[in-house]
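Side project, low priority. Logging it here so it doesn't get lost.
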Amino acid sequence: MNDNQNFPVETPTASRNSSLDRILKIAANLFAIHGYHSTSMSDLERETGLGRGALYYHITSKEELLFEVISRYLRRLIEAGDQLLATQMPAEERLRKLSRHVMRAVSNHLSELTVCFREVHSVIGVRRVELLNLHRQYEQIWADVLKAGEIENSFCPTDPLMVKALLGMHHYSYLWMRPGGPRSPEDIADYFCDLVMPGLNLRTEPIA
């Protein structure tokens, strides 16, 4: 009997992807703790246990590592938002689901999301343009969620300031979020939504 019959065989591509995932995780932790500019390639070598040549087998530069960390998680947030927008549900439920997803992502991937929200301006050139475009796409998800509520007559008309307020509430959580704390990410998300919902809901009675 073939000894490998019941076990998956790790291909070179799968092995390289696994190694890259590990490098990105370690890089994100270093960037989040020390800052991108204060993290050196020597720091990455020490923490990964890889030599310079092995690191450069997976990445071409420290900036590429930063770009990969940020772009990967922005795309994941955008994908989740697009799926919510494509699913039929009441506007408030969609907003709450988006809020919960973002807060859970921050909690589960605190280092990566810290870098994602804090270090985008450390990327330059064409990569920076791409990241800023991804940030705009992600911001548009929130705007579209609010617009969908307006179209179904659940939310009052909003402006970009409301979107900025929502983004600020959620994004700056990386400064104080402590995974495993007394309140779950979903509880925090619901608290945020409870705060803004009175300003979003259409008034059903005239103001006295």
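Brief comment: The two ends are 83 Å apart (CA to CA).
Revisit when time allows.
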